[in-house]
């Protein structure tokens, strides 16, 4: 009987809190080199003619393409679960005329990436982040990275237990108190 109570207690205390994920751009779905989806996150090209190049620069690179007259080299990151935190990018580099990667969150927060490797990012409780390659001229600009670190439960969003979790926790407490009374 003690085992059952212990099991119920452990189940009651187990909660689905923040889920920090690494988007590695290898285990998701690449749709026509214009959008990539992994763990509920979608990174999509915003202008036709632009495309991803898996393995071009780092794990995944993107550029506007030499035949594309529109120099609008942007990607949009969204999460099917709503708001999220984007906390790090493992940046691989630039090719052609790319000189910086500018990121803008849905809340107006910004970051500029110019150095290789892991770069901390300030995006907290955002619903999207736009990635834009800054180019030194009107030429093709390319950028690439290896991974993104995201949190599916935004830092500033309160964690509210589900009613069923609260009911299970209450049942656990009643069982625990009853057990204590029976042992006295």
**Helicity range:** 10-25%
Domain tally = 1
Largest sheet: 7 strands, antiparallel
| CATH architecture descriptor name | Sandwich
The count of helical stretches stands at: 2
What is the overall shape? elongated
Q: What fraction of residues sit in β-strands?
A: over 45%
Summing up helix and strand content along with how strands pair, one would put the structural category as alpha+beta
The number of strands is: 13
Mean pLDDT: 80
Question: In sequence order, what are the helices and strands, one letter per element?
Answer: HEEEEEEEEEEEEEH
Query: What's the CATH topology label?
Result: Jelly Rolls
Radius of gyration: 23 Å
Determine the N-to-C terminus distance: 16 Å
Strand order of the biggest β-sheet:
2-3-4-7-12-9-10
Low-confidence blocks of residues:
4-16
The CATH class assignment is Mainly Beta
Tell me what you see in this structure.
This protein has 184 residues and is α+β, with helices and mostly antiparallel strands. It has a single domain, classed as Sandwich (Jelly Rolls), CATH 2.60.120. Helices cover 18% and strands 46% of the residues. The chain is built from two helices and 13 strands, in the order αβββββββββββββα. The strands form two sheets. Strands 2-3-4-7-12-9-10 form a seven-stranded antiparallel beta sheet, with no helix packed on it. Strands 1, 5, 6, 8, 11 and 13 form a six-stranded antiparallel beta sheet that branches. Helix 1 runs antiparallel to helix 2 (163-183). The longest helix has 21 residues, at 163-183. The model is unreliable at 4-16 (pLDDT under 50).
